[in-house]
Design a protein that fits this description.
33% of the residues lie in helices and 19% in strands. The chain is α+β, with helices and mostly antiparallel strands. It contains four helices and five strands.
């Protein structure tokens, strides 16, 4: 889940097809593309906290079919397929991490910085 949080801290938004495709959108072009494809829900990262993004993705993942996956996607000129990065591939399971109750990021980030949560 640490990759998930790292991508969510820098993303423009998240999208779900309400079946099994969950995307972390890394740039404005991808936000526009998903809106054009009719993705709903489509959530803008600047309107919610990282903790809320994690919560939404956890909910979507739990309510997705068995083909579920989470990918980060950014725009790559030339070959758009190069812009996809697997966070949780099809067939993999979600691995929970302990999250900080105050800010919602993984506890290990505080531990590495020597901070107490």
């Amino acid at each position: 889940m640490s990759d998930l949080v790292e991508y969510l801290q820098d993303c423009k938004g998240i999208a779900w097809d309400t079946c099994h495709k969950i995307y972390i959108l890394m740039d404005d072009n991808q936000m526009s593309a998903m809106a054009g494809y009719g993705y709903d829900p489509l959530i803008y990262a600047d309107q919610v906290s990282v903790k809320e993004l994690i919560s939404r993705i956890e909910d979507w993942y739990a309510n997705s079919c068995s083909l579920r996956f989470i990918q980060a996607v950014k725009t790559v000129q030339g070959d758009p397929n190069e812009g996809f990065t697997d966070i949780i591939s099809q067939g993999e399971e979600w691995e929970d991490e302990e999250l900080c109750e105050e800010c919602g990021i993984p506890q290990w980030i505080h531990d590495e910085d020597g901070e107490d949560a």
